[in-house]
Write a structure and sequence with these properties.
heterotrimer; A alpha+beta (260); B mainly alpha (395); C mainly alpha (152); A: 260 residues; Alpha-Beta Plaits; three-stranded antiparallel sheet; elongated; B: 395 residues; mainly alpha; 15 helices; 2 strands; globular
Chain lengths: 260, 395, 152
Amino acid sequence: MNVDRRQFLAQTTKFLLLTGVASEAWAFVESGRPQDAPDYDLTRHWWAMFIDIEKCIGCGRCVDACKVENDVPAEAHFSRTWVERYNIPAGDVTNPKAESTPRVDSTAGGRHGFPEIYPEGTSGKSFYVPKMCNHCAHSPCVQVCPVGATFESPDGVVLVDKAYCIGCRYCVQACPYGCRFIDPRTNTVDKCTLCYHRITKGLTTACCEVCPTAARQLGDLKNPQDPIHELLRTHTVQVLKPYMATGAKVYYNGLDGAVR
Amino acid sequence: MLPHGLEGFMYPNEMELQWSILIVLYPFLTGLVAGAFILASLERVFNIEAIRPTYRLALLTALAFLIVAPLPLQLHLGHPERAFEMFLTPHLTSAMAMFGFVYLWYLLAVLVIEIWLEWRPHIVEQAQTRTGILKLLYRVMTLGSNNVSPRALAIDDRVGRFITVIGIPSAFLLHGYVGFIFGSVKANPWWSTPLMPIVFLFSAIVSGIAAVLLIYVFYCLSKGIKLNMACLDTMGKFLFYAFVVDFGLEMLDLVHRNYEADESLKTLNFMAETRLFGSQVVLQIIVGTLAPLFMLGLTQLVKLTEQARKVIFTVAAMLTMVGIFAMRWNVVIGGQMFSKSFLGYTTFKMGFATREGLLPALVLLVLPLFILWALTRLFPPMDEAEKETEPAPDL
Amino acid sequence: MLGVPRDGEHLVRLVLLFAAGVLLLLVVRALFVPAGFGDYGHFRTGAIADAGKRQNVFAGRAACAECHGEVLTALAKGSHAKVGCESCHGALAAQVADADKVKPVAIEVVELCSLCHAKNQARPKNQPQVDPGPHAEGNVCTECHDAHAPAA
């Protein structure tokens, strides 16, 4: 090859490469910058939630607020978040070997609160357990999505791409916590987004906003000043189904061993 | 809309089943494909001459069911028009993502080529003698080559054998990955077991052999062809042995589960004893496994007349199909009937003329038979020479 | 083709057909994979922005302080200090946006207060609880209790 041809090839390659890079960059621009709010930096947050069972009074405001904020049909049985009431009967002294099963209820997800069905003198202990998407760091739902329509954002929120979801429901099957459902209006999967549209603008989630006892608290594990670090350090903390190693990021204080 | 028959506690989002009869149908159909192909490969690769009469029929059966197999999935998707995304951006950690590629590979690189090679002389002949649209169809299938010289056919035979050899693991993959889709879901104790792909595969082989047996019997009956008893006996024998392995594997799962007795056991046993009793204990185990096993075992141990064997094989094959369908049902539907909290159960409400109802499922079950009929018209499964063959020597 | 016997010609054509198919698939892929797919992981980058696009329905208590500062000062002193405004008054981002046009919905007092304060065995013991019927004697809760500054 003579020098002219070599030069030509070099120029062409450079041109193609640069055009390629430029087109890549443009495509990135076209795809929409991930940061919607002016000073929100994806890489400086790692969202989590702290739920204190000892503080939850089962009022159900969180369930209602979530549906209102996120346009989830109010009367539908499915819900992005819900509260369960556990009643664990006291053991039978005459037959301690007998297994006692917890009684659990969650009518309408707890949206209208809980009518008293365990009157004074009922044996055992009862408490409320708010549940939601655990925004797992090693999420099984993300793992099984065949097309990449559900994912964990760089700031730790598991989101659904409603424009891309094909509605196969594999993720619904794979979630150990039952937090995903199909929205019949869009025929795609829906679930708690940790009120992404709020937290990226400096607000808290709708459920935390209305919780009257601060049983629910949003946390940012990447922020050294965030109260969640102190909470995690000073409480006996558990996640749901730890043996599944999902990397769940909803931390519970006072979670009884009977809770499923 | 809460289903009636909700018992105990279920997470709010679990109350309605997500995967319906269409998702029961899909593994059933691909199982038939894999099973029929493996039966065909017994003759082609392992030289089991006795089942030669069913070789072509088995290939056509596999194709007919393979064509229908994606339809229940498409019907089930929330957005079937986006299904192509699986080709654009397959998520490599998802077993389901391999569906598109494995399906296309098996359809085009294995089954279609094998059928094409097997029937090429017929295709070339038809392209020359037919008229009208069929002539055009056959001409396209010749790919412009009329070469059916002995050398060309010898090459075809070698290539065909090679395709069959890679076809066997491909068939395993086509159906095995479905088993893995269920077996790898750690959230669901009814599904999560490494045995799942293996159990799926062996029940696929069982259902495939049974399906080809039935199709062979009914095809011969409809054409007035004498049934080749050596062929039938051999198929019955393979069905029996495959069934023994399949049953053994399912029993292993059951025994292991009951022995380890982890937290899920009480819930699962309760479900099997109540809501799943009819489909599991009655249909799958008694009617669909023990009865045909007994009948087939009888033919292996006792000398029976030709007529008796014909009836027993046919009835046993029919019961087998019911049993394997019930097995798919019990895996898919059973896995969704109990709560992941282990505290409750729900019911499966199946509509009739709805998108995921009984009617479309029945149509999809019957459709492959119509396609098979059309395929036998295009590609005759038996030429004149095979129609009254002497029985091949016994194995 | 050099060296391929005529007898295998149909197979060569088959292979070429396949190659064409694979090429077609690759071209379609290049054309239709969404822009920005895979930048941060196996997903469409635009989906993150999509998740952030929703309009707020709840304003958040900081927004209420702009006009109702005195209420929040009183609230901070009583036992309802942690209760958000919209916990009782409903979602009010619309009111913050246009205070004249949008008013909060009237509260069903007994029904609302009972959600937190009706006697219920499952509530933590330190939660103030009463049996609403006998306690209220037909009155509405706010007859005796100031919701913005309840007795500690």
